[in-house]
C-alpha cells in the first residue's frame, strides 16, 4: 500500500470525557471527524507505541463500528503500526480489550501496547444515536488525564494525517491474518475470537466447578440479560457452555448494532425484561422468579445484580464482594491488597475496609483513577455506584466478572445446601446479613439528562457559592427540614493520586453531614448532548432494627433538601429526574 497525507483542520469539541469521546453518529460521520481524533491520539503517544507496535481495535459492535474499524486500520498502517488485532465482527467487550492487552500473545510472541475501544457504553446506538471511541494504554486501562489532555490539545492544532487509502477493506467476519506490504515493511491485521482470552482469564480467577454445581438444576435458578450488547458474545460461552446454565436463562444475548432499539443501561428503568422476570415489575408474571438475575451495559463493563424480587445497590455490591472475596474466590485466597471506590459511591465499602483493616482509597469518578493504584499493588477490588465493579485482574470494570463474583459467593455459602431439603442462602439473605453486620447506607441517584448546559453550570456555581458559609447553609437546611443532621463541611472534591502525585480538581460538589449523610452534585462527562446533572444522596444507618426500610422513603427528607438547596427546578425547569437509580 501507499501512504497519502490528507490535509485537515481542527474540529471543535473533541475533548475526551469521563470515558473517551462520545457523540452522535452523524457527528462522527462528518469528514475527518474520526480521522482527526485518531491522529491526535497517535500524536499523543510516544513513537514506540505507534511505529512497529501492535494495537487492538474493537468494541461493542454498535452502528458505525464496521466503518470506523476500517478507517482506523488504514490510518494505523500509514502511521507505521506493525499489527492490528480485531475481535471477530469488531466485537470485544471493554473488559475483554483490557484482558487482551494484558494477556494475549501473537503467534510470534508479540504483545499489544494499546487499544482503540469503539463504544459509547450504555448510550443507545444506531444511525441517530451515539458512537464513541477511547484509547487504552499498555496496562490495559483507560488513558490517564495527562494523555487525554494531550489528545485534546492535538485536536486543536491538527493539520494533516497519513492514511493508506488504497489498502483494501479487511474481512472482519472471518478469523485469520491478512498481511500487507507498505513503504515501511509488513503490516498485519489479525481477526481473532472475541471470547477465548477472556474466558481463559475468568477460569483462572474463579472456581468454575463450584459455580457449575450451583447452577445445575433444580434448586438454584439464574437469568442474564445482555440488553443486546457485546456481553452476548460471552454469555453463551461462559454461562451455558462452561457453567451449564439453561439456554433459556439468557435474555437479549445476540449483540445488535442498535441494541434492539433499547437503551443498553443495566438499571431498574432500562432492563425491563429482566426486571419483570425477577419479580420486580409493576405486576407479577405468575411465574416464580429466578434466584439470581444480572444485566450488562452495551460494552459489558457494567453490571446490575438482582435477587428474587430484590435489587442490590451497586455501592453495596462492591462492599459485599470485598467482604466475602477471600473465602469464595480463589484469585483472592491470599488476601486483598486494598479496596477503592469513586467519590460519589456510598461509604459501604469504607466500613468493610475498616473492619477488615484493608487499605482504602476514594478516587474521582471514572475507572482510569483505579489503574494507578492497581499497578502499584495497592488495590484488589473497586467499584462505582454507577453499576461498575471490578478487580486488579484487568484495568477496566468488568460486568461478567461481577456476576461470577456473586455466583462464587452464593456457591460458597450454599456448599452444603444444594442437595436435599435445606434452604438456600439467597441474594437477599446475603445483603440483609451484610447490613446487620456493617450497617446500611441508604443510597439513591437522581439524573437530570439533557438539561440546558448554561443552566446546569449556573446550578453548580450556585452550589459552590453556598459552600463559602457553613452556618448560612445550616440556616437554609433547618428552614427546609428540621429532622436532618447539620452540615459539617462542604467542598469540591479534589484528588491527589498517591502514586504519581497528579492532582484532579473540581471532581464533584459535596455537602457532608454530621451523621455521615452526604449530598453530591456532579455534571456527567459521558453525555453526547446538553448537560446531565447527577445528584447522589446517601444516609448511614447503624441501628440493625432500622436497616430494613424502603430506600426512597428513608431518603425522602434528604432528597427534598437536596432539590431545594440546589434550586433544581428553578434552574433546570424539571420537576422530576429523567432516571432514578
Ligand atoms: C458515568 C458514571 C461513571 C462511569 C462512567 C463510564 O460517568 O457516572 O461512574 O465510570 O459513566 O462508564 P459520568 O461522567 O457520566 O457520570 V461506561 O460503562 O459509560 O464506560
Ligand atoms: Co460501559
Describe this protein with a few key phrases:
single chain, 581 residues, alpha/beta, Alpha-D-Glucose-1,6-Bisphosphate, Chain A, domain 3, TATA-Binding Protein, seven-stranded mixed beta sheet, 18 helices, 26 strands, binds alpha-D-glucose-1-phosphate-6-vanadate, binds cobalt (II) ion
* Strand fraction: 15-25%
Q: What profile does the largest beta sheet have?
A: 7 strands, mixed
What is the 3D form?
Answer: globular
User: Given this structure, which CATH class of the largest domain is correct?
Assistant: Alpha Beta
Q: Rounded to an integer, what's the Rg over CA atoms?
A: 24 Å
Distance between the termini: 51 Å
Count, helices: 18
Total beta strand runs: 26
Q: What oligomeric assembly is this protein in?
A: single chain
| Model regions low in confidence, pLDDT < 50 over at least 5 residues | none
Give the fraction of residues assigned to helices.
25-40%
Bound molecules: alpha-D-glucose-1-phosphate-6-vanadate, cobalt (II) ion
Average pLDDT level: 94
The total domain count is 3
Amino acid at each position: 500500500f501507499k501512504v497519502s497525507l490528507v490535509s485537515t483542520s481542527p474540529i471543535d469539541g473533541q475533548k475526551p470525557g469521563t470515558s473517551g469521546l462520545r457523540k452522535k453518529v452523524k457527528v462522527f460521520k462528518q469528514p475527518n471527524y474520526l480521522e482527526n481524533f485518531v491522529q491526535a491520539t497517535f500524536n499523543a503517544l510516544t513513537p514506540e507505541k505507534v511505529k512497529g507496535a501492535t494495537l487492538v481495535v474493537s468494541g461493542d459492535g454498535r452502528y458505525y463500528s464496521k466503518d470506523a474499524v476500517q478507517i482506523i486500520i488504514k490510518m494505523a498502517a500509514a502511521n507505521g503500526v506493525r499489527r492490528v488485532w480485531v475481535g471477530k465482527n469488531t466485537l470485544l467487550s471493554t473488559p475483554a480489550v483490557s484482558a487482551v492487552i494484558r494477556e494475549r500473545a501473537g503467534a510470534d510472541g508479540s504483545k499489544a501496547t494499546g487499544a482503540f475501544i469503539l463504544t459509547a457504553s450504555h448510550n443507545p446506538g444506531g444511525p441517530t444515536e451515539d458512537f464513541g471511541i477511547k484509547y487504552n494504554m499498555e496496562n490495559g486501562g483507560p488513558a490517564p488525564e495527562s494523555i487525554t489532555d494531550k489528545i485534546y490539545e492535538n485536536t486543536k492544532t491538527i493539520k494533516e494525517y497519513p492514511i493508506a487509502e488504497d489498502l483494501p477493506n479487511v474481512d472482519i467476519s472471518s478469523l485469520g491474518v491478512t498481511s500487507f506490504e507498505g513503504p515501511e515493511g509488513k503490516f498485519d491485521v489479525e481477526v481473532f475470537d472475541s471470547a477465548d482470552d477472556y474466558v481463559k482469564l475468568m477460569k483462572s480467577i474463579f472456581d468454575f466447578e463450584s459455580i457449575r454445581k450451583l447452577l445445575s438444576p433444580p434448586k438454584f435458578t439464574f437469568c442474564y440479560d445482555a440488553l443486546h450488547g457485546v456481553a452476548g458474545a460471552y454469555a453463551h460461552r461462559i454461562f451455558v457452555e462452561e457453567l451449564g446454565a439453561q439456554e433459556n436463562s439468557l435474555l437479549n444475548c445476540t449483540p445488535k448494532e442498535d441494541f434492539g432499539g433499547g437503551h443498553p443501561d443495566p438499571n431498574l428503568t432500562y432492563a425491563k425484561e429482566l426486571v419483570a422476570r425477577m419479580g420486580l415489575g409493576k405486576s407479577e408474571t405468575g411465574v416464580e422468579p429466578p434466584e439470581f438475575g444480572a444485566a450488562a451495559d452495551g460494552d459489558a463493563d457494567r453490571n446490575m445484580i438482582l435477587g428474587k424480587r430484590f435489587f442490590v445497590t451497586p455501592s453495596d455490591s462492591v462492599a459485599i464482594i470485598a467482604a466475602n472475596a477471600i473465602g469464595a474466590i480463589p484469585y483472592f485466597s491470599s488476601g486483598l491488597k486494598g479496596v477503592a471506590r469513586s467519590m460519589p459511591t456510598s461509604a459501604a465499602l469504607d466500613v468493610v475496609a475498616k473492619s477488615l483493616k484493608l487499605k482504602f482509597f476514594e478516587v474521582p469518578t471514572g475507572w482510569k483513577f483505579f489503574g494507578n493504584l492497581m499497578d502499584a499493588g495497592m488495590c484488589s477490588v473497586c467499584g462505582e455506584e454507577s453499576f461498575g465493579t471490578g478487580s486488579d485482574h484487568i484495568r477496566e470494570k468488568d460486568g461478567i466478572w461481577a456476576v461470577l463474583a456473586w455466583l462464587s459467593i452464593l456457591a460458597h455459602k450454599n456448599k452444603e445446601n444444594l442437595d436435599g431439603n435445606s434452604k438456600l442462602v439467597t441474594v437477599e439473605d446475603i445483603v440483609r446479613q451484610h447490613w446487620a453486620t456493617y450497617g446500611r447506607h441508604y443510597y439513591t441517584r437522581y439524573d437530570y439528562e439533557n438539561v440546558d448546559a448554561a443552566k446546569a453550570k449556573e446550578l453548580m456555581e450556585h452550589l459552590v457559592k453556598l459552600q463559602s458559609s457553613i452556618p448560612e447553609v445550616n440556616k437554609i437546611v433547618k428552614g427546609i427540614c428540621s429532622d436532618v443532621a447539620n452540615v459539617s463541611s462542604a467542598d469540591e472534591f479534589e484528588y491527589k493520586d498517591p502514586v504519581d502525585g497528579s492532582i484532579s480538581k473540581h471532581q464533584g460538589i459535596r455537602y457532608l453531614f454530621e451523621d455521615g449523610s452526604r449530598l453530591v452534585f456532579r455534571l456527567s462527562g459521558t453525555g453526547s448532548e446538553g448537560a446531565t446533572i447527577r445528584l447522589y444522596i446517601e444516609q448511614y444507618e447503624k441501628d440493625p432494627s432500622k436497616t430494613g426500610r424502603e430506600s426512597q422513603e428513608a431518603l425522602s427528607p434528604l432528597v427534598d433538601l437536596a432539590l431545594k438547596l440546589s434550586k433544581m427546578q428553578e434552574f433546570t425547569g424539571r420537576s422530576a429526574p429523567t432516571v432514578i437509580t
